[in-house]
Design a protein that fits this description.
One of its GO terms (molecular function) is methyltransferase activity. This protein is an all-alpha fold. Helices cover about 45% and strands about 0% of the residues. It is built from three helices and no strands.
């Protein structure tokens, strides 16, 4: 729902891409695809769930590679 809403809201900016995926497994991207990653909401959400430390660690490893 959020992805679709953002695509509509920013339809005048075709260079922006919104992709739904698991932040713990971002194999769709090659290693080193990003110079920087800024996130707060996703990490907060992960830390509220079951196995939060394990899932947070997986996410941070994905973002860092």
């Amino acid at each position: 729902l959020v992805v679709e809403a953002m695509q509509i809201k920013y339809s005048d900016r075709p260079q922006l891409k919104y992709i739904k995926m698991d932040a713990r497994n971002m194999s769709e991207f090659q290693t080193g695809s990003f110079d920087a990653v800024i996130d707060k909401g996703t990490l907060d959400s992960i830390l509220c769930g079951n196995n939060s430390r394990q899932h947070a660690t997986q996410m941070l490893k994905e973002v860092g590679s």
